[in-house]
Design goal:
By secondary structure, the protein is mostly helical. It has five helices and no strands. α3 packs antiparallel against α4. The longest helix is centred in the first third of the chain and has 31 residues. It starts with a helix and ends with a helix. About 4% of the residues have low confidence.
Amino acid sequence: MKKIVLMVVAMFTMTMSFAENENNSAVKSVEAYDMTVNMRKLAVALDLTSDQIEAVQDIHTAFCNDMMLAAYAHADERNAMVEQAVKKDVRYMHYILNEKQYKTYLLLLNTTLKNRGLK
């Protein structure tokens, strides 16, 4: 009887630890899609004007929303949604930023995506 009880406890413990690791990896995956940035630092890095700051902030908010939708999407659709969100963000930023600012923004965006394992 003791062996059966110990076996049940061991199985329960192993199952719980496995489920905990699975949930942790899912949370880390979702955190990778959180693209919020400090707008003040981005404005300094890109040397933005006050009008550009407002426009960039609006575009970046939409980009963050699109990326979070991708984070919670089915795995088959996720890469396409990320690619679509990035293309839309880059296209809108190109209208707002001058060439020097745009190149710097692309560098920052690509680095962020690579560091988070999304590219």
